[in-house]
Write a structure and sequence with these properties.
6-stranded mixed β-sheet, two-stranded antiparallel sheet, 17 helices, 10 strands, 46% helix, globular
Amino acid sequence: MARPPTHRPGWLVWHQRKESERRARERTVEIERLQNNIDNLIVKACRGEIDPSELTRASLRDFCSAIARSKRDEPSRSSLADLLLFMHRASDFLFESATIGGRELPYINGLIKLNDRRSSWLAQPRSWRWQSHNARRQFSSFARHLVARFPVPVFMDEAWLDAAPGARRARDWFVHMGLGKNIRTAKTPIPLTKMMAHHFLEAPNTFGIMAAFRWGQVHALGGDRRLTEALLGSRLSNSFVHDDFWSSVIRFFIANPMLDRRHIGPIIDYLHDQKFESIEIVREDGTVASEAPPQPNLSMRGRSPSALLNAVERWHGELGRRTKLTGQTFKRSGHKGLRLTNADGALTWQLRELLSEAELAAEGRALHHCVVSYASSCAAGECSIWSMERRTDTGLAKHQTVEVRNSQIVQCRGKFNRLPTAREIAVLETWARHAGLKLGAYVSARD
């Protein structure tokens, strides 16, 4: 054991250091005891007496962080503590997550949001009886026990598990259907016909709610799952803005089933650019002017697949020339890139973020696709674009261009819009684990 210094100032510093080390050891022991006593952890977290960053177990840290973000009034926190204490004993999912639409959504989010809606409860938690040890089935059963008298599709669980502000209206839809009301009478993103509502209710359980609306729409118009998934891998994945026009585009795809589905994303990008995207032009004096979209009155009437594909190809060539006129750059998304090396430490694969229109244009020219049309979305922070590159004997070769939105990899296309290979998907999966991203459900390898 080290002896303290004999002179006063040195002794004081030594004593303060030892006291600090003692308190740190005591806190470490206290935190470990707390992590081994979940009931006590729940009570303290709901009282606001825990700093989640002090916890060493990731699952408990995320759990307490979610509680810290919940409503802080005493009635809400007291009710939440009672609910979580009961669920700790009664369920198997308290610290687990569900995978919906390619996203990992923690069940604690669902319990917090159900607690926030306790004025709508039709039964008390303690009267719930579970018949399965499957976490997803347990949560589905519990949510319906509290707020539903009538069947609600399983994909609607996302309404409770998604903590984003926009999910509140989805919870309204869940409660609406749970009371036996028709989804057509709710305030949905698009008006639903009887046929659309019917197909919406039959969407796959793995879908998210917005994907289920698209499923209902496409199937009601006569489309199939393959077309739906192609649309979900495009700009139309979760947006129903300008739906009258986009419905006509969907009808066009349905009427032309032999059109290769790999062209759907590029066609949608082209149509969006021509009809809705304003153009920024840099004048000689350095000022930037905004012009109307090239074809604001564009419609699908009388269009043929071959003519449309030719227009898309010409547009690809024009994009580079048009975007050279602006010097737009983008803020970093904050996501980590990836560098894979071999046993000798030499680079093999990498993913790097593209941070300017010039880089997007170069990427598009190299791979013959229209990624430069995403410049305004990148500038607005709506998405980020990444280049997947592989080291060869002659330098770096571009393989895939990747779009990330809301921490999810939503689109991945190579030269002439080809789908990724199994090896490229493996690189994406490695990147997703490394960067904390989710690989979208509609990002798949080519056959």
